[in-house]
Here is the input.
Amino acid sequence: MTLSHKASILIAEGEDGPSHALMSALGSEYEFSVVQDGITVMELLKNGKEFDIILLGLSLPRADGFQVLKFMEARSIDIPTVVFADSADEAAESLGEILPLGAATVLSKPVVVTRWQKTIDSLVKQREALLAEQVPVERNSGLHYPFRLVKRFCYICGCENVPVFIPVSDAYTENWSAGPYPTYTSAAGFHPWDMLRSLVSICPYCLFASSDPRDFSTRSKSTFPYTQDAKKILASSISARRRMITEGQKEDNRFDSFLRDKEKVIQSLKLAEKCCNGLILGGKTSAHCQAGVYATLLGSLTYPHGTSHFQGALINFQNQMKAETSPELYVKTKYFTLVLNMLLGQTTKGRDILKELENHYFDKRADQISNEERDWMLRINHIWKNGIDLSQPRELEYLES
Here is the structure.
């Protein structure tokens, strides 16, 4: 298996950076994004933007390469990163400090395209090989599942063997036309799969649960990325999480498999929603939205008995709007707020939401709106125009023995 998309490379450069030379020579082979300072890099990564490789300038305005590497290490962001210095002398002097922070290698300017290309090509091939090893294969069809299965470390209890499921980019599409839940279609060459079954990853020891891979660490003994008080709360509520799924034992491996039936999917969502309380207290930017999505899915899976889940979800999304939000998180939250108000018979509030969105985007140029924002806007327009049909609970597709 190879990367199912053109490998994406983020170049973070100051003055006289390598982007022009590299994009001229390699623009047809790779997808490049360019930023001018270290703060922007950290904001992109904090908001979950994914890249296959990062080319990171050592001398950047606002936050230098060292600060970005420390940020990535603290949050266990495991993206191959090539640091480049302004001179060979600077590269040699910084080598001993940069490599322990997780950088793959160090290059120096001026850009020698053949040398830089060799480094980039090598890292892309290594990443392809790693991804291929991590994507499980369905035994009967011989097709890959549309997600990676990797082992991560638990920030809460230190467990070194947490199975984490990470969707493969471009391996599936999700359709939100139903309103409160998505349906999934695997791309050609991938096994048909309902991503709800592998949405939540769960530590087998402390039952910390999340759908966000960044809530688990790629390194042993990494610093918890949120407040220590939140970690204490999550650690002290282990017994409560065990009681939620009945007869939870010291090591509970029932969620290690991605072949989950409806009952296990519901239990996984309840655990994840519970854990969001700690993430909210810890200051995670998207935690209210995360909790709201879990509650919305629970309401869909348990319909027509899911009204209380929908009501709880709406409160979470309303709280998200009071917190710090990225543009993508803002419009996603508005989508769910609209859907939930429609489900709860509050159509008038839906009109208010549409007016707020119209005002929010009134002065924005097309190039200031991301593709993800556009996707959620299209979903909002579809739901408002076509309505919601939730006459049956959301069932799981592609059940296997």
